[in-house]
Amino acid sequence: MSERFHFRLLAMSDLHGHLIPESLTDFTQKPSGLCAISSIIAKHRTENTRVLDLGDSIQGSPMMDYHQAHRHSSPNPVAVLFNHLKVDYFVPGNHDFNYGRSYLDQFIDNLNTTKVLCANILDKKNRPAFGLPYDLFTLGEGIKIAIIGVTTQYIPNWERKSHITNLRFENACQVAKRLVEHLKKIENPHLIILAYHGGFEKDLDTFEAYVADTGENLGSRMLEEIPEIDILITGHQHRSIVSTVRNTLVIQPGYNGKAMAVIDVDFIKENGRYAIRKKAILEKTDNYPVDETCVTLLSNIRKETEKYLDIRIGKTTQDLLIKDAFLARRDKHPIVTFINQVQREKTKADISCCSLGNQVSGFPDIIRIRDVLSTYVFPNTLVVLRIDGQTLKRALEKNAEYFALDEEGRIIANPRYSYPKTEHYNYDMFDGIDYCIDVAQPYGRRIVTLTYQNKPVSTHQSFTLVMNNYRSTGGGEFQMYRNLEIVKEINIDIASLLIDYIKKHKTITIQAHHNIRVINSNQ
Ligand SMILES: [Zn+2]
C-alpha cells in the first residue's frame, strides 16, 4: 500500500484593509473581507495547513485610514485578525509602505506568530529588511516544504522616498532563482512554493507580453526561468487565476478579501519516492458567512471609524454624484475640476492634473467624510513639478491613449486599462490648460490643440504642474515626469486637503470647466 501525506495552503492577497464587509456607501454588500475569509479558513483548515497572506494588506480601507490617522498606537486591526486566525506567513506588498515605514514596522511588531517572508528587500547591511527570505518545514516522515517570499521591486517608482529610506529592492526573479538553486543544493525540498507580491507581464497561454516590461511584474519570467517552482502564488494585479503553466501550479487569489485560494498537495510514496499531485480552487467569500468573532474583535475601531466617517463637513446644491465613471472621465466631471482647484489653490501651480479611482462615488447634498474618502480613494500627497511645453504634450499624449473607438466609431475606454489590471486611475485630467483629444488619430498624435491662457503652448514654455506623488515618480508609465525638477512637495494627504477645503467653504459650488474635448474627427 502506498503512503500518502496531504498538505494544504490557504492563500489570500491584496486585502487592502478590507476586514468587514462594508463599503463606504453600499451597506448591502455580500460577505467579503478578512472576517468572511475567516469562515473559509475555518472550513478548510486541516492538520497540515498553512495560511499565507501575500501583501497589500494594511492600506486601502477607511478603517485602516482611520487607524493610521487617529489610532495608530492601538494594535493594528489587520494584525489583530492575523493573530486570531493564526496566519502563518505575510509577504509585504507595495501598498504596505504607503503609510510610512514606522507604520509597517509596527504592524509587523503586532504580529504574534506570523512569519514575514521577503527575500529581495534589503537593508543597509544587505540583510533582508523584513523577516526571512524563506521558511522551510517538515511534514510527516521528513517531507520538506520550502516557501520563499519576494515583493515587486518596482516600489521606488511609486513610493515616497522617506518611506523607503535605506532600503534596496533587488530583482525579484533573480533573487528567487538564486534561492531556489541554493535550496535545491542544500536542502533539496520535496516542494518549493514561491509567494510573489507581483503579477504577470505576459499572457499565461501564449507568453506574449501584455504589459510593459518594467520589472513591476515578473511572474512570467519566473515561470520561464525557474522551472523548479512547484507552486507560484502571485498577487498585485487583483486577478483571479488558477492554472497550470509548464508544470507549475499558478495562483492569483483576487483582492479585497473576496476570495481565498485553497491549494492541495498530495505526496504519494511509491517505491521509496514521493510523487506529487497538486490542485487548487478559489473559494469566494460571498458563499460564506461573516465570522462574528472577528467582527467583535474589531467592534471598537469599527464604531469609531463609522462615527468619524459620518461627520458632516459641508453641503452642495449641485448634483455632484458620479453615476457613470466613464462619462465622468470623458466629459470631465465637476468633481475633477474641484480636485484640481483645491490642488492649485494649495500649491499655486499653473496647471493641475488628477484622475478618478476605478470606482468613485462623488458628493451627495450633505457631504460627509465618507463621501470624500470614497471619491478620493488613494493615500496620495501633492508634488509640484517644473515642466516644459514639449514634455507636457508628451504627458497629454500618454493620457490620450486612454480612449479607443469601437466598431461603430463610438468613443470608449481603451480595453488596455481594464485588462490585465483595472487601472482607469491612470487617466489624468488637467486644469489650467485647454486641449482637444482626437481619438481617430494614432497614439502620439492625438492632442490636436493645446493652449494656455488662450495661446498655443510652445515647446520651451515653462510651467509648474501639480499632481499626486504616485504620478510624479512616473507611476502608470508616465516616464516623462521621472526626472523633472521638483518645485514643491506638500506632505498632507489629498483627501485631508479636500476635507479641509469643504469644511472651510461649507457650501461647495463648482464652476464646470469644459477645457478638455474628446472627439472622433471621423464622425
Ligand atoms: Zn501591489
Keywords:
single chain, 523 residues, alpha/beta, Purple Acid Phosphatase, chain A, domain 2, 5'-nucleotidase,  domain 2, 2 domains, 6-stranded mixed β-sheet, 14 helices, 25% helix, binds zinc ion
Number of helices: 14
By secondary-structure content and strand pairing, the structural class works out as alpha/beta
CATH homology superfamily name of the largest domain: Metallo-dependent phosphatases
Specify the biggest β-sheet.
6 strands, mixed
Radius of gyration: 24 Å
Give the neighbour order of strands across the main sheet: 4-3-2-1-13-14
CATH topology of the largest domain: Purple Acid Phosphatase, chain A, domain 2
- Ligand species: zinc ion
CATH architecture level-2 label of the largest domain: 4-Layer Sandwich
The CA-CA distance between the termini, in Å, is 74 Å
* Count of domain modules: 2
Question: Mean pLDDT, rounded to whole units?
Answer: 94
Range of helix content: 25-40%
- At the first level of CATH, the class of the largest domain is Alpha Beta
Name the poorly predicted regions. none
**Total DSSP E strands:** 30
Strand content: 25-35%
Shape category: globular
